[in-house]
């Protein structure tokens, strides 16, 4: 049963990669990341942070395939993620402030009490993120953000407001 499930997961990854490689690439100038608000950029980056933490911490279940899914997500959405990063650093007031907030976000996801729930949710989010159209991560992030936020004790993650962490 585990072999069949693993084969289905890998087949899903291949289909996702093939679908994206055949799609006509969109121009980075059409990216929502350039005009997104701080909270929208944070939602995308927090989703990325959650998937990164899950890729590292959820390897206990190889059926989730989170390291492979995370790497595929990064590869497929590299240009958009670069734009989100660049804009977040600017909107948060520089690299040092970005790094401080980002560390807090990673720590929150790394210490989620319901690890199994987090890993399963991250697996679902990773599929949606991999399948997102180029430069459309915001739609996936908007959907995932409330559930990810609830998992970390209901605290809003990566708020730009000092002292809210």
Structural commentary:
The chain has 165 residues and is an all-alpha fold. Helix content is 69%, strand content 0%. Helix 2 packs antiparallel against helix 3 (66-76), helix 2 (38-57) crosses helix 4 (78-91) and helix 6 runs antiparallel to helix 7. The radius of gyration is 16 Å and the shape is globular.
| Poorly predicted ranges | 1-11, 13-30, 155-165
Provide the gyration radius in Å: 16 Å
Relative helix content? 55-70%
> Beta-strand percentage?
under 5%
Number of E-type strands? 0
Number of domains: 1
Provide mean pLDDT, rounded: 80
Gross morphology: globular
Distance between the termini: 43 Å
Helix/strand/pairing category: mainly alpha
Number of helices: 7
What's the main sheet like?
none
- SSE sequence, one letter per element: HHHHHHH
Summarize the model shown.
This protein has seven helices and no strands. With 165 residues, the protein is mostly helical.
Detail the topology: elements first, then pairings.
Layout: H1 2-22, H2 38-57, H3 66-76, H4 78-91, H5 95-110, H6 115-131, H7 137-151
Helix pairs in contact: 2-3, 2-4, 2-5, 2-6, 2-7, 3-6, 6-7
Key terms:
165 residues; mainly alpha; 7 helices; disordered N terminus
């Amino acid at each position: 049963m585990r072999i069949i499930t693993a084969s289905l997961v890998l087949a899903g990854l291949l289909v996702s990669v093939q679908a994206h490689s055949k799609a006509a690439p969109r121009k980075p100038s059409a990216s929502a990341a350039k005009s997104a608000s701080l909270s929208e950029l944070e939602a995308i980056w927090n989703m990325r942070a959650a998937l990164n933490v899950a890729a590292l911490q959820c390897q206990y279940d190889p059926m989730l395939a989170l390291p492979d899914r995370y790497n595929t997500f990064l590869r497929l959405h590299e240009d958009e993620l670069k734009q989100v990063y660049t804009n977040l650093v600017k909107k948060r007031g520089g690299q040092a402030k970005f790094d401080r907030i980002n560390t807090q976000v990673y720590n929150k996801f790394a210490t989620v009490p319901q690890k199994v729930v987090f890993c399963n949710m991250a697996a679902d989010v990773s599929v949606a993120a991999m399948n997102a159209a180029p430069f459309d991560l915001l739609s996936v992030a908007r959907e995932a953000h409330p559930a990810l936020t609830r998992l970390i004790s209901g605290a809003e993650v990566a708020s730009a407001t000092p002292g809210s962490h």
